[in-house]
Design brief:
Blueprint: E1 25-34, E2 37-47, E3 52-57, H1 63-71, E4 78-83, E5 86-87, E6 98-101, H2 113-124, H3 128-141, H4 157-169, E7 175-179, H5 187-204, E8 207-211, H6 215-221, E9 224-229, E10 232-237, H7 239-244, H8 249-254, E11 259-269, E12 272-277, E13 282-286, E14 297-302, E15 308-310, E16 320-330, E17 334-340, E18 346-352, E19 367-371, E20 378-380
Parallel strand pairs: 3-8, 3-9, 6-7, 7-8
Antiparallel strand pairs: 1-2, 1-4, 4-5, 9-10, 11-12, 11-14, 12-13, 14-20, 15-19, 16-17, 16-19, 17-18
Helix pairs in contact: 2-3, 2-4, 3-4
The structure holds adenosine-5'-triphosphate (ATP) and magnesium ion.
């Protein structure tokens, strides 16, 4: 059966769906411990050539450690890492076609921008004329060609970060590891640089592994995202799949905002499942086959933008809830309505502010109905 696509897709690039495709980077059951602390826990992962792969996860979940093992700065306690079919065990960092831009990138303060970018190439013994050309090319790529003679302290934080980026790109490594590469940029420059980076990656045909704390950044840039928790990968999927079909409460809660309701599974008929949420006093019917038994505890998860809020009572009491508005967050483009349901539980509904004037505006303490479609939410079993 053909897989139904979720959200926007880059149709010509999905090697992970191709059983014939050979992974370019592969972690096989890799574990890394520091003393008796397990930083990376039996982790297996496949990344494909030219893929833009993002690692998301809370602080200390093992993202940097994973990258450092791939770059050769840490040795796994167990498991193997392959690159282009080669087992990397025993291969020193400088012999790996991998470059890493560190979380706390450090430019050489006494060197000019161009000398910083040229540094690695000189060490490699590249001829002088070639170095000059490459540095020029790289500075052009990050739009800093006019800043070549400046010293790092004469640059803004964002410009410095772009120098670090140019430096890590200069050797044109097959694989670039970027650990929080845009952390120092303001929102606007961050967005611009995100686009520059994706263009660059595409032009140079490189494979990117990027760590970010910013889930929007991961969503806009990556082909696939891995969500990590405590040294393990919880889910690997495209941004749209991660958002629309999280595989657990952890992922659902980690990415974006979501309403979670504890339920009992009450019926299963083919691709339709029925749930009851006792605390919310609500019956839910969803077009999803659920892998659980009748009577099992499951969770219904629905994004606030998929919840309708209205004064009008819906025709059916299934997939509907009565509530009271107790808080409204006006964000300009959208408003988020926090509604109290019986038992003081809350459900959030996001409404796009389509027009400035509304016939009957919703206000605090208003009684409202919340409802949703049978395919709007997702049932989680863990
Ligand atoms: N050299 C080390 N010695 C001991 N513990 C370490 C060492 N390096 C990392 N750790 C621990 O391993 C865990 C994972 O660290 P890592 O740097 O990979 O986290 P991270 O996911 O990159 O976090 P952040 O988002 O904060 O950068 C942390 O708990 C950290 O304290
Ligand atoms: Mg880190």
């Amino acid at each position: 059966m053909a897989k139904k696509p979720i959200g926007p897709v880059r149709r010509d690039f999905a090697p992970w769906d191709d059983p014939q495709a050979r992974p370019y980077i592969e972690f096989r059951n890799v574990t890394k411990t520091f003393g008796d602390f397990i930083a990376v826990d039996d982790l297996s992962l496949k990344i494909y050539e030219r893929e833009f792969f993002a690692l998301l996860g809370g602080s200390g979940c093992g993202k940097t450690t994973m990258m450092r093992m791939l770059a050769g700065f840490e040795t796994p306690n167990a498991g193997e890492i392959f690159l282009d079919g080669q087992n990397l065990a025993g291969v020193p960092p400088y012999k790996r076609p991998v470059n890493m831009m560190f979380q706390s990138y450090a430019l050489f303060p006494h060197m000019s921008v161009e000398a910083n970018v040229a540094f690695g190439l000189k060490q490699e013994g590249m001829p002088k004329a070639e170095i000059g050309e490459r540095v020029e090319e790289m500075l052009k790529l990050v739009k800093l060609q006019d800043f070549a003679r400046r010293k790092p302290h004469q640059l803004s934080g964002g410009q410095r970060q772009r120098v670090a980026l140019a430096r890590s790109l200069a050797k044109k490594p097959k694989v670039l590891l970027l650990d929080e590469p845009l952390g120092a940029l303001d929102r606007k420059l961050r967005e611009e640089t995100q686009f520059e980076l994706t263009d660059l990656q595409y032009e140079l045909g490189m494979t990117f592994l990027i760590v970010t704390h910013d889930q929007e950044e991961a969503m806009t840039m990556a082909d696939r995202i891995a969500v990590m928790d405590k040294g393990r990968i919880v889910q690997i999927a495209t941004p749209a799949e991660i958002y629309e079909l999280p595989n657990s409460r952890f992922v659902a809660d980690f990415i974006g905002d979501i309403n979670l309701m504890e339920c009992k599974l009450t019926a299963r008929e083919g691709d339709v499942s029925s749930l009851h949420a006792p605390v919310f006093g609500c019956d839910i019917k969803i077009s999803q086959a659920v892998d659980a038994n009748i009577g099992d505890t499951v969770w219904f998860a629905i994004r606030p933008e998929k919840v309708r809020i209205s004064f009008e009572e819906p025709e059916s009491r299934v997939n509907a809830l009565k509530g009271e508005v107790w808080d409204i967050a006006y964000l300009g483009d959208v408003s988020i309505y926090h509604t109290h349901i019986a038992n003081e539980e809350t459900v959030r509904a996001t409404v796009a502010n389509r027009s400035r004037v509304v016939e009957r505006p919703m206000s605090w303490d208003d009684e409202v109905w919340l409802s949703w479609d049978a395919d709007a939410g997702v049932v989680l079993t863990r």
